[in-house]
Amino acid sequence: MDYKEIIAKFADKPGGLIESYHALLKEFSYLPEEAIVEAAKVFKMSTAEAYGVATFYSMFSVKSRGKYVIRICESAPCHIAGAAEVVAAMEKELGIKMGESTADGRFTLEFTECVGQCQATPVITVNGKPYLDVNAAKIPAILAECK
Amino acid sequence: MAEEMRIVLRNYGKVDPLNIDTYLAQGGYKGLEKARSMGTADLIADVKKANLRGRGGAGFNCGMKWSFAASAQADQKYVICNADEGEPGTYKDRLIMENDPQTLIEGMAICAYAIGATKGFIYLRGEYPFLVDTLNTAIAQAKDKGLLKDFDLEVRSGAGAYVCGEETALIESIEGKRGEPRFKPPFPPNIGLWGKPTIVNNVETFANVPVIVEKGGDWYAAIGDKAYPGTKVFTLTGDVNNRTFFEVPTNLTIRQLIYDFGGGIRDGKKFKAVQIGGTSGGFIPESLLDTCIAFDSMSAIGATLGSGATFVMDETRDIVDIITRIAGFFEHESCGKCAPCREGTARVAELMEKINEGHGSAKDTTLLNKLGTVMSYSCLCGLGQAAPAPVLTTIKHFEADYAAKFK
Amino acid sequence: MANVIIDGIKASVPDGSTILQAANQVGVRIPTLCYHPDQSIKANCRVCVCEVEGNRLLQAACAIPVFDGMVIKTRSPKVIEARKTILELILANHPQDCLNCIRNGNCELQELAEEYCIRENPFEYKVRGFAKDFSTPSLFRDPDKCVLCRRCIEACSVIQSVNALGLQNRGHHSMVVPTMGGNLIDSPCVMCGQCIHACPVGAIGEVEGINDFLAAVADPDKIVVTQIAPAVRLAISEEIGMETGAMSMETFVTGLRQVGFDHVLHTNFTADLTILEEGNELLKRVKEGGTLPMFTSCSPGWINFCETFYPDLLDNLSTCKSPQQMFGSLVKTYWAEKMGVDPSRIYSVSIMPCVAKKFEASRPEMNASGYRDVDLVLTTREVGRLFRMSGLDFSKLPGSNFDSWMGAYTGAAVIFGASGGVMEAALRTVYEVVTGNTLEDVNFTGIRGFDGIKEAEVDLNGLVVKVAIAHSLSNARKLMDQVRAGESPYHFIEIMACPGGCIGGGGQPITKRNAKRIERIDAIYLEDEGLPIRKSHENPEVKQIYEDFLQEPLGHKSHELLHTHYHDKHKTVL
User: Fewer CB within 10 Å, N- or C-terminus of chain A?
Assistant: First the structure.
């Protein structure tokens, strides 16, 4: 689907900009400039404002990202449970640092704050799907799921 | 030995979240039915009498809030459920929505009837995308059964901003804008979503409402602590044996929570500190463990009940390191609108990093104290006002830990 | 009414008053930074916080309404400490650049730092590291100095409806940026400069030409000639500590000669000329069924706005150049001829209340004279700096007159500086041209003043001309949307980009309240009243230039030198 079609689906929702951004994320993994310009038109706001929204929220990105966005929780409960080891293992496995994307466009590594799965720390998410009680040993299997 | 008491989680494990009939079989929607048979003034009076205080962290009397919105004159009013649940260590609202979404919907419908609203939103944090379908299915089923009548309920997603747990920032977000809080007054029950009277309540707050209406305000007010009655769901994380959740009457002590329900400190270690209420809660030392968990008794010791997140740390934990990470959290989550929070959270993080890396001195903790204190009463919203609490309480109760890292 | 006590002083204030308003009423001054009297309340700097009895939290005076019985302390130790800390926080990431900064001596942050005796800062000094943006010829951005008050965003989006500025990122990574985080030149910015007035510090300012001017003055080969816009004289006095309108035109001319101008001429001359050209153009369109309504074209911020947002309506614009540009093309042709000087030696400087004029002068097509028609544009503020640099005492300077050929002007030209002035000037001439009668009362007071949109109907012996006037681009937009929809009832529309007209232009002394704009408007009509000739077509030098050089309005020579064309500047990021 092209970005105009995606955005048009939310046109009749007052304040639906953020919903449209989520839908764009599912398709593109980030918010392309043209999409932000179009969304501004559809939701009758200035491009400056629409861009301000796109850059405010942690889940959005105006820079292109990999197909699979892996987010590693670093909030206090995960921090003491061993988030740093998960980070190190993930960086080693993918050959990139936090904040970077793999050259083949498959993965992007980001930090996230608490995702509400604190019963099973450390926690990571892949495109929003939580993986619980994560450790270095479990990472290859998690990555293998991402085709 | 204290016992759990499940009001909010009464249907946990007993209903299928995707099948409303199972909820009805447990007596669901009797509250709404009774509410609709009452005059709105009587209904609100009863909720007020129950003294149900907001379960998101602010602790404001729910019924009183509803009465402001009810008396406001407008052509449209809104009911919003704050399901942003951004507080680290908290997942109680997820439990409610995952397992018993109908109690939330019923509670919102009762509120809508009480204040005269026909439109509602569930602002669901972006980190729970797996709940969008669950909630939409539950809403559709309630609608199909004709239970919601003219109350139209919609799910809107957040997108990763802790500050959107603040009710006015949440409202801005639903309006499709940056989630930046508004100054108050005016308050949402008078001027809220799109300028209309709006009630924003937490998931857990709404989940109590059907039972309160069914069984009456007096029944609820008699449970737990007198000033903050009812139950509270606690989620235990960190160095406890039982890293899970409990719903308990509000007249419990912290000690009971950690040792009776939490099973005490794991691996036979000693207790060092507990942070209750979320990542902006105060750090509580051993000496204060016999404090009652209710809202006001916690305030009295400079702590907070907040969301009920209970983060336990044992003797091996590096408090300064944990506080440094928490300071990083607030630096990251500050919306940036007001100067003392935007700059202050960054400076707190900078000073904590300096101390944590061994380059700090008593001058820095003195500065942190001053900065944190000024932030606590100058910032525009609760985020900036509460962010310094972990730093301030640990400098007070764990001075030695800081001193140990001074250069 | 609510009865409150402020710092022990009793006050009775209207219900709904803010703490700030109540304090003002009893002469208690509370410091502010993000507060702006003509904009919405922002309450984001927290500098104005005060203690309110019974509340642990300090309250922002600008935003919080009083209640009956409120007891307020604006200067308790708790408040002073809070304000100092907040200022220290802002200053700790603010470039320590005061000596080099364009707002040195006229900066709200400097004032606060001084008032609160900030001698040392406990926080580590660390600037944010944003690049400066000098992408436009008119204004620059210095984001490191931004205090995130957001006054510029409101000026650009609400007052001007241009939306070139917005926010980026969150927390202490927040910054005010042009659309999509690019440079100003790539944004819809029309260079009106209203953001400069809104900014409390030096985060936005005009691109200065002072060094270019001084170099030209020092060059013995250059003949430095200036034209002065009508809105400048009454405001330049504000730059040197005098009242609005207090500097006489004659001493202003002397002052300009003293700082290095060889010849002092007046844009008002070409303003009168514009009326002849534009008035005739209007009548031609009315008679021959040309594109109507016709829009005025002397405000370059407005021209940029039309080219960017309404490129489909470019044919409605008058083809007349602005008075600045008409002057530019004539000074190196007609004037050079009359003076017997080599036009290649002329360095043509205009003094303008405007920053968009710097862009206008640089437009490639503005070279009808065979040279760059206007070499340099200096704002009122820059001339203020030259005057301060010169140390001249304007209370003692003798007066002197303008030079000849392009220095005479009428009251009609003077009022160009106020919203409604171009229209009134045009009507004074058009009336006499069409009816053949003398206009006894030249005052069209109905189209004066600060209302955003004004309209009038003038009966010219049966030819009823409907006119409208708008100032501020958000008001212009309303008229433009009407035209685009084919529903405009007007023949002639005057649009000024800046609130109040040129007297409130982006190059004027920093204007913090509309009350000052209104004061300048009053000064302009006073000046007009005091002049012996108040109709453009009666300007003797205008008559002369047609006789000797242009032959007739809209003639071949006029077309070559005094008329222009426009460009579609439609940008995708609208």
Answer: C
